[in-house]
Write a structure and sequence with these properties.
This protein has 501 residues and is α+β, with helices and mostly antiparallel strands. It has 2 domains: 372 residues, FAD/NAD(P)-binding domain, CATH 3.50.50; 73 residues, Alpha-Beta Plaits, CATH 3.30.70. It has 15 helices and 25 strands. The strands form 6 sheets. It has a 7-stranded mixed beta sheet with strand order 6-5-17-18-19-16-20. It has a 6-stranded mixed beta sheet with strand order 10-2-1-14-23-22. Strands 3-9-4 form a 3-stranded antiparallel beta sheet. A hairpin with a 2-residue loop joins strand 22 and strand 23. Helix 1 packs parallel to helix 6 and helix 1 packs parallel to helix 8. It is globular and about 70 Å long. Flavin-adenine dinucleotide binds next to helix 1, strand 2, strand 3, strand 16 and helix 8.
């Protein structure tokens, strides 16, 4: 698999993207004895992003893959558990729905749980263990005879401050050379980058480079990379992050809150000591002062924004050019509604590990990463199919849904989303079982927005009485099992606290 790997890979950037890339690539290089050296160049003079981030379940799989201790991770980074996203005021003011990220279909023995739930007029979240844990604000463990017992087989996600996670990954990384310096020049030859010039005056040569310099795009910018802006599809272009302390004794919700506002939405991510929060909004619809005032009115107290970041949703047309690959914020950015960024980095590094050194590797990588980000974009945009018309932002959104969204909604008037509605991802690497945005994520969002067709689901169920019986029984048994499991689990905050005692 990893033949013809470069002899020396230099990764510029020490944020989450840089350290995840370094760990994942050096791990493959060691296991497959490619003889590759990995060097990270990061600049302690330039900060990392760190706004309070949510991960997906892939992050936990990554911890396990590296044999990293989850409890230590939670303790040392102050992370919390995330079972999904609570969407408040998206469908209409006063309405809320959840998107639990576990996959009960995995244990349903072929029963069509979603179609059954829609046909029966029940919430699709009911058969999800994570919905019950989220409702009860529970940890994913119960105590039995003094021993910790997992509530279920599904991987949950985390909330954290990526600046702390980047630093933790850096401490865990083994066999990676580190240079604290700033790249000030990029020396190019016929086949791409030859060497980097550093502020200290030194020069670093390598045969492969990763640009993890965040929004600066310090290397890939020199390679003539082209940015494809998504501003027509995702009009949000500003982010105003702030912190809010968690009060002593206050229970910590094991979910991200995405709270729709008049010109965008508020993210609200609990870490153990504070909420990482922020308003992502469209500056065509409100000024920064209005944005701040709107959030203060919603929360009922003054906020102290740490920044007001200009963001341009989009991606590089090609993230891999010559011998340079852009990873993390340097390669793409989408509003963080479904926590796609760090997830994207992990999956991209798995793809790069497979395709690096292969003749057609670059073309395959560029096609797959392009598809990945475009699929995330379309899924995010679907969240905006709302009944809200109470501000210019929501009226403009309602008048401009892209064709891909209206086509999909038309398709799903005929049936509840099924695996067959989605192209498998990534092409050619299906055996890796990488999570992607497919029916398991679409169904709770469509259900929450009231966009699933109960009559069509009833027709599907009625056409297959045996299947309907199986779905009904399986659904009832999962609901009972998960209600019971969640009742026995420890409270989220107390459990997190116990890890530090
Ligand atoms: C508002 C907002 C909310 C977000 N929410 C989420 C979320 O909920 N979930 C999620 O998955 N992601 C989220 N993200 C994205 C997430 O923060 C990033 O994917 C993640 O932090 C990785 O960032 P990075 O490592 O690419 O860049 P950064 O964190 O910006 O790191 C860049 C690194 O490059 C170094 N560097 C830059 N220039 C040079 C140079 N010339 N020489 C040497 N070093 C250099 C810096 O020192 C730094 O170490 C969010 C982002 C924003 C902006």
């Amino acid at each position: 698999m990893a033949q013809n790997w470069p002899k020396h890979i230099v990764i510029v950037g020490g944020g989450t993207a840089g350290w995840l890339a370094a760990m994942m690539l050096s791990d493959v290089a060691l296991r497959q004895k490619t003889g590759t050296r990995v060097t990270v160049i990061e600049s302690s003079k330039i900060g990392v992003i760190g706004v309070g981030e949510g991960s997906t379940a892939v992050f936990r799989q990554m911890l396990r893959h590296f044999g990293l201790d989850e409890e230590e991770f939670l303790r040392e980074t102050g992370a919390t558990i995330k079972y999904g996203i609570r969407h408040r005021d998206w469908r209409r003011l006063g309405h809320s729905y959840d998107g639990p990220i576990d996959t009960p279909q995995m244990v349903a023995g072929g029963a069509n749980l979603d179609t059954y739930a829609v046909a029966a007029g029940r919430s699709v979240g009911e058969a999800h263990l994570f919905q019950h844990l989220l409702n009860g604000r529970k940890a994913p463990f119960a105590l039995k005879d003094g021993k910790r017992v997992a509530a279920g087989p599904f991987h949950y996600a985390f909330h954290f401050d990526q600046a702390l996670v980047g630093a933790w990954l850096r401490r865990k990384a083994r066999g990676i050379a580190l240079i604290d310096d700033q790249v000030v020049g990029v020396e190019k030859g016929e086949d791409g980058i030859v060497a980097l010039a550093l502020e200290s005056g030194s020069r670093v040569e390598a045969d492969f480079f990763l640009d993890c310099t965040g929004f600066r795009r310090r290397l890939i910018g020199e390679m003539g990379a082209e940015w494809l802006s998504f501003r027509d599809v995702l009009p949000i272009n500003r982010a105003m992050p702030f912190w809010v302390d968690i009060k002593p004794g206050e229970e910590i919700d094991p979910c991200t809150l995405a709270w729709a506002q008049k010109s965008g939405w508020l993210w609200w991510i609990p870490t153990q000591g504070r909420y990482g929060a922020g308003y992502v909004y469209s500056d065509a619809h409100c000024t920064p002062d209005q944005a701040k005032a709107e959030i203060e009115a919603a929360l009922g107290y003054e906020i102290h924004p740490r920044n007001d970041i200009k963001i341009d949703a989009g991606r590089l047309k090609e993230a891999w050019i010559g011998n340079c690959v852009a990873v993390g914020l340097s390669s793409s950015f989408l509003e963080p509604l479904e926590a796609t960024s760090i997830h994207g980095t992990i999956v991209q590094m798995m793809m790069l590990s497979e395709w690096l050194g292969q003749g057609d590797g670059r073309a395959r990588y560029n096609a797959a990463t392009g598809q990945q980000v475009d699929d995330f974009r379309d899924f995010i945009r679907l969240h905006y199919v709302s009944e809200r018309r109470d501000s210019a932002f929501w009226r403009d959104i309602a008048a401009s849904h892209p064709q891909v969204v209206t086509d999909r909604l038309a398709l799903w008037q005929g049936h509840v989303p099924q695996p067959a509605d989605f192209a498998r991802f990534p092409p050619g690497l299906e055996h890796l079982g990488l999570a992607h945005v497919q029916e398991q994520l679409y169904v709770p969002v469509l259900g929450g927005l009231g966009l699933l067709n109960r009559d069509a689901a009833r027709v599907v169920m009625a056409a297959n009485p045996k299947g309907r019986d199986l779905a009904r029984k399986t659904h009832a048994s999962l609901v009972a099992e998960y209600t019971n499991a969640a009742a026995q689990c420890l409270p989220h905050r107390a459990w997190l606290q116990s890890l530090s005692d």
